[in-house]
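Summary for the steering committee. The consortium agreed at its last meeting that each partner would contribute one worked example illustrating the joint modelling workflow. Our contribution is presented below. We chose a case with several input lines so that the handling of multiple components could be demonstrated. No manual editing was applied between input and output; the record is shown as generated.
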Amino acid sequence: MDDKEKQFEDFVRQTKFDDAPDPNHRDRLEQDLLAALTKQAPRQTEIWRMIMKSQITKLAAAAVIIVAVLIGISTFNGTTAWAKVIKALGEVENIYIVSTVTMPDGTQVQSKCWLRKPHCLRKEEPSGIVIDNGEERLTINKEKKRAQLEDSWAEYRPVSQEYIFEQIEMFRGQKVEGVTVKKLEDQSNDNISVFRLDCASTYSQLTYQGKAWVDTDTMLPKKIEVQLTSKSKVGEPKSGEMIFDYAPISDDVFETVVPEGYTVRPRKKARVISGKVINEQGDAVADALVFIVSRGGHFVSESRTDIQGNFAVKLPPPSTGRAPTSPVFLRAYQEGQSDKVAWTIIPTPDKAKKWGIRIPGKVGHVEAAVYLFTASGIVLQMEPAGKISGLIKDVEGSPITNVSVSVRCNPVDDYGNKVSELIFQPLGGHGKRGEPITQTDKKGRYEFTNLPRFWDKTVFILNAEADGYVDKEIRFRSAGPMDYKEVDFQLYRAGLTVNGILKDNYGELLREREVYARVDGKDYRACRTKTDKKGRFRLVGCPITQDLQVKAELSHNHWPPHERERYMSYRYYPDVVVGIDYEEGKTEYEVELVAERPEITIEVELRNSAGEPLSYFPVEVHGTPGSIASQWKADKKLKQRTDERGYCRFTEVPNVEGLKLVMWGGSGVWNDPLSKDEAEKLRNEYRKYKWTEVPIEVAPTKKEYKVKVTLLTREE
Amino acid sequence: MIVGTSLKISGETKINLNEGSNAANDGQFIAEARNDPVAFGRLYRRHYDAVFRYCVHRLFERQAAEDVTSTVFLKVVENLGRFKGDKQQFRNWLYKIATNAVNNHLRQATRRKKLLKVAGEQVSHRATDCLGAIDASAERLALLKEAMLDLKPRYQTIITLRFFENLKLTEVAEVLASSPGTVRSQLARALAKLRKKLELATDFTDYTG
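What follows is the complete predicted structure of the assembly.
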């Protein structure tokens, strides 16, 4: 450590930080994390990982193997018989599974599971029992001899979403890597079909081999056995079996009775958001629908107000993986009264941020950590609502019926900047992202009413989807609070496929670059793909029109900055757009996209009218708007200051339309070599010079350009 | 200077993060924590304080640091299954997640400006408070905050890990997935910038000498 470092170390040592952790926060966070860990909703699509995260399979490891084999589903590998097994299994109403695993040391672990659709389940594992009968949920911890009662989770996790059904549904018709199923004809007879199962886990790098005995009539498995064929790892079972029964299960199984000798813990309170909806005069609004949407834009739950205008919406417990994180959005309206809406945002307590935007309604008492616990005393007051409607037609002008239209919005602050940390899609509805969703009528019209008007400059995003048509998204920015807007769509039929190759003018293949369809200067990002390792791409479902173009977006670096190596090595090019040679009836097209490598060099010498060099003057390379992204300019220093002698040099300048140099003393540069004060001083001094633009006439073969510029002051 | 981060577990056992023997248990906890909430709880309590302190030292704001700490551990819960390294790599991984989370937090330009503004106000308030007894440490903190938040996030990370979290250069390099040589030169540059900023605001040598 050198002296300077030592000196700074001393400085830090003498600085007192308020950095003692708060035990309350630590404990609260721990509770939330453990809840999230225990019942983490499966997110990864990698099947092994997903199975490993399933609660029951985690505790009964046999199921890990067996379920993996089970969902090695459907029509792949030519084993259509196995597809029937999976289909039948996904459709049963009652299922009782006993699974047993044998560990490497010979010990056996057994677990039992009763599932009765739609909402009864009982799981017995060595460590405990869970019973949920749709009304009440009982959790028994055998080790601690404790029992816990709470409201049923059925509303949030119906039995059809239990691991076995959920995973079958999720992977139906998909090929699961590493799993093969083969019917053993010699061992099968009229009553029983026997299948051989092989699977290799890409997750744990283990391989298994097993057998399944299936009832030939019902195509339901009776028993599955699996053996580990690779070397066992610590904690991995050596073998496992699962026995299935599909007889109706009696109600007794799902009775929530606490066994003797167990301490019953206080009943868990339901988490509730409660309050009142009033009209503009302050009177209660009865029978109003109240939506709750989480920060992430997920629809959480809804409720209706009673005759006094009171509402209470139950929140899912965090352990279900569906609890909302704050801030939370609330919206209420009365059906039949389309011009009124009431809404508010519940912020995280003690951390209420001033977003510089108006949020109506009153929020009473709120308890929240990572998740929202409860909120009470909320007052939602009706105010005038916004409305969006429009007509959806095809290219011939005929209205299209049954088009799904959804609306989202991005809130903005006073400056029109997106406030993403506030809430993403704050509208509230039954769409995929918690947004309102509707369908066009026979005349092709759609309508959204009861929309919060939000703020000036809010961006609304409408999306239209219909079978056989290309999805279309239209955005608009409201001029003031959104009152009424008519937005019409024209949808193209989908059906063209464009294959192609993307390279630069030196023949270098451009890999992993974004390519998408474009019509009339508008991008259709619903039809997009990336080039593969050979620079090739295939765009399917493109709009059927002679105006179809293909665009490769090369002027934006799509790598995230934290993937530093990739990010920094990104080579920018101007975007390339190529049209197809449309022929009536032809559906497959081939195009070649050639990007021109940016290799123009411009040397600039800047002087004032007296012939003195203008040092540290900001100079910027411009093209037509959008042709050179600001990120590109920053990364490749296409905006820089002259040096002491009034010179600067730009390299890797692209040959774009309207290429020019812009000099203005008032602008700043990225990664400024000057300090803030120096830059500010110069800015004030250089403001007297006129805004000056110098067009660069690019000749086909010329790569080097030298430009001498004399800047004049306003007076001159 | 922080020499070792101590924390209590279950109110009794004291663990020092910088002691190899205890850190060795991490490897076992990590493997178990993927499936066992109890093991995860242990792992969490073992690292909570260090992560929180790192966040405070980067953000200079308790509430923001708590928010970011929550984000860090939620990310850990989500991604623990993918983590395949050993105990040393786990700590580095935590710092990496924390660094990204802090940088994300700071990236919000308005938030950054707000922090800078508050820091500025604190400095000017202190500087004018010359009649009363000046709390030198509080002033130092405000100055440091202003100077640090003005640095590039990369430099902030290096300075914090090196001087506040007391990591060796090689360890900082591991966290940043960079070579020690690069980190050394970046540290020198960061320090030079920081000293310059501190010297501009006050007589830096007055405090240290």
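Chain A touches chain B at residues 4-5, 7-19, 21-22, 25-26, 29-30, 32-34, 36-38, 40, 43-44, 49, 52-53, 58, 234, 350-351, 369-370, 413, 417, 421, 562 (CB under 8 Å). Chain A has four domains: 44-254, 272-384, 494-595, 600-711.
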